[in-house]
Design a protein that fits this description.
GMP Synthetase, Chain A, domain 3; 6-stranded mixed sheet; binds zinc ion
Length: 405
């Protein structure tokens, strides 16, 4: 079934894209397609003229130049159906009141997609609140009483805290489910991270994560058994490859590589997402037998090898965020005068700075076997460093290895 789809998608790409025509000419196993290649050869990768575009999304630009990803009406409708099936598996029903707290502007793909999924496919009421200040979000929630929230983990946490500050118990608001994306809720071994623990404690809602990207124009939903994000097998194939050699890995953590099976405007053949995760292939407790993309542990370009050990900055960040009293932090890796790679953390803290610093040092050392340098910084300084790259999302990890000695 999916072998047929794969053959058809590849034949289609060769017929309609100048770039794929050359690249897939005689390759038995198609070569990997990097984000840089997608950027560079974008025009030649396109398979339909602009008159057939029905919607365009813009990537966040957190890695490279922002890209505008087009879809035709037909593929968009098809993908909506697949995403809707995944979301329905979370137990969302017709008549649910779904409050969308994601940004509504600048061609944001998940918003466009999920609005239609909930309203047109699942017959829910869609309450389009957007990413406005939490006080205003709370006001809308109180007025319209949604029972499902769609958003990003950190802003959803913030909303709960603002509710508390206003004398409203988040648990009393009646939010049964929260569909969250943009930041992981799980870490290595699919263990809930600190963000998920805080959200659980604050909201008492069932949390579901969605894994996706603008390039894919689709999201993979966490299932009712909470055992990973099920691959939409009619629409894509997922492989895990060694980020360095590009070899396919049968097990373990590596880069998520996706091949689309039903795309028209911009098919992606073995596209390197840059995300590090792993696949579970055995059938799932939820009843589905599609493979699952598990926790996203970080980005390939952020993976560090220090003293021979692989370190994922995001996992270090989770450890730091879990220390009581940490308000914000920045992780940096740099090279000292002796060519040693070192970790430095700048943390904004509340309470006993020395005790917090000692705890961070110990936790990070236990995980990485490297003792990080830890500096206490003002929150303004941390915020400034988060946004220094000029992108839309805060960046808490900075690789300074190329910058200076
Ligand atoms: Zn499942």
């Amino acid at each position: 079934m999916s072998a047929d789809r794969l053959r058809r998608q590849i034949a289609y790409a060769r017929r309609n894209s100048l770039y794929y025509r050359e690249r897939l000419r005689d390759a038995k196993t198609p070569p990997l397609l990097s984000r840089a290649e997608l950027e560079e050869h974008f025009e030649r990768l396109l398979c339909v003229p602009r008159e057939r575009w029905a919607d365009v999304s813009r990537t966040s630009g957190s890695s490279g130049r922002p890209l505008h990803i087009p879809v035709t009406l037909r593929e968009m409708r098809r993908l909506l159906g697949s995403v809707a099936a995944g979301v329905a598996g979370m137990g969302v029903r017709a008549g649910d009141r779904v409050c969308i707290l994601l940004p509504m502007d600048d061609m944001m793909n998940p918003t466009v997609m999920l609005e239609q999924v909930f309203r047109d496919r699942l017959r829910c009421l869609v309450i389009r609140v957007g990413a406005r200040p939490p006080e205003q979000q709370l006001d809308r929630v109180l007025a319209l009483r949604p029972n499902v929230v769609v958003g990003a983990p950190s802003p959803f946490l913030k909303l709960g805290m603002i509710a508390q500050q206003n004398g409203v118990d988040p648990r009393a608001l009646g939010i049964e489910r929260a569909v969250l994306m943009g930041q992981p809720l799980y870490g290595e071994g699919w263990r809930p991270n600190v963000l998920k623990e805080r959200l659980d404690a604050l909201w008492g809602a069932e949390l579901f994560s969605i894994y996706g990207s603008t390039e894919l124009y689709a999201g993979l939903s966490e299932c009712s058994a909470h055992r990973g994000h099920h691959v939409l097998t009619d629409d894509m194939l997922v492989e895990i490859v060694d980020p360095e050699s590009g070899q396919v890995l049968e097990e373990g953590v590596g880069e998520v590589v996706v091949t689309t099976l039903s795309r028209e405007a911009l098919p992606l053949i073995r596209y390197r997402t840059g995300d590090l995760s792993w696949l579970e292939r055995e059938s799932c407790a939820c009843g589905l037998d599609s493979p699952r993309v598990m926790a996203v542990l970080g980005r390939t370009d952020e993976m560090l090898k220090i003293k021979g050990a692989k370190i994922y900055p995001q996992q270090v960040e989770d450890l730091v965020a879990a220390v009581e009293g940490v308000e914000g932090h920045v992780l940096e890796v740099y090279v000292d005068a002796h060519g040693q790679e070192l970790l430095r953390l700048r943390v904004a803290v509340r309470g006993d700075g020395d005790a917090i610093v000692a705890q961070i040092r110990e936790r990070v050392r236990a995980y990485t076997r490297v003792t990080p340098e830890v500096e206490v910084a003002h929150m303004d300084e941390v915020l400034r460093r988060w946004m220094a790259h000029g992108g839309r999302k805060p960046r808490k990890f900075h690789d300074l290895r190329g910058a200076r000695g």
